[in-house]
Each structure stands twice: as C-alpha cells, then as structure tokens.
Write a structure and sequence with these properties.
By secondary structure, the protein is α+β, with helices and mostly antiparallel strands. 51% of the residues lie in helices and 19% in strands. It folds into two domains: 1-84; 86-157, no CATH class. It has helices at 7-13, 17-26, 29-81, 126-135, and strands at residues 88-89, 93-100, 103-106, 117-118, 123-124, 143-146, 149-156. Strand 1 (88-89) and strand 2 form a beta hairpin. The longest helix has 53 residues, at 29-81.
Length: 157
Amino acid sequence: MSETVDIDKYCLAEQDEAKLLELSREEDVERFVLRCADEEEELSITIEALKVRIKVLQERARGMEAKCEKLRGIIQAVMQRDDWKKPIKNGSSTVTLADTAPDYEITNEADIPAEYWIPGDPKLDKKKLREAILEDGLVVPGTRRTNGGQLIKIRRK
C-alpha cells in the first residue's frame, strides 16, 4: 500500500498559488503524481467493492421482504382457518386478524368519466370517486368495487 496523500493540504493550496508553488517544491513531482494515482486507484477499487456489496445486500433484503410476506400470509391463513378472533400476544408483539372495509380499485384510468377528474391539472378526484362507488353504490367505468376482507396486523413494542 502506498503512502496516502494529504488531499486537504493540496486542496487548500489550490486557493493560494503561492502556497501551491511552495508545496510543489517540497516534493518530487513524479513521486507526488504517482502517489495520487495510486491512492485514486485504491479508492476506485474500494468504491467498486462497495457497489457490489450494496447490490448483494439489496438482493438479500428483497429475499427477506418476500419471506416476511409469506410468513404474514401463513399467519393470516391459519387465523382465518381457525376463525381466530382474539389478539395473540407475547412480550414484544400483538398479532390481530382485522376485517377491512369494502373499497374500490381502478382497473382502467382512461375509462373513468370526466366528472371524476379535477379540471386543469388532470387528476382524479379520489374523494368524489370513493363517495360515488362506496356510498352511492354507483358503477363507475374503469373501476371495480372490492368486498373488503381481512388482513394481519402485527404491532411490536
């Protein structure tokens, strides 16, 4: 490993030509340039290694997220199968099977009539859409009503 370069010393020197000239006289130019090049190479190698490690960690996190979703699905299936209504608690968590209210989802935004869009900056008026579908019971093209369902809530202390 080569001797590291005191970059701050030289960066500050860039602001003062007299200081830069003084520093360049203190050291052999070839030696200085080669030390800088060696350090830049080491930093570049470290950067590439970090990028690879970050990618590996991101893939690992995605795998863990998928496993969490599967575990939540298993918990939900078991609690639904046994028609479990009470929260299940331990020292650090509370698991509950909760009912969700009926909702709507957008199936094709382009089919939604103009009356559900905010004029000017074309943006869906989701409040108006929700009221029309869920409260008034209207069938709005480009949407569908869902029946609600159940979901798992896990609270941690």
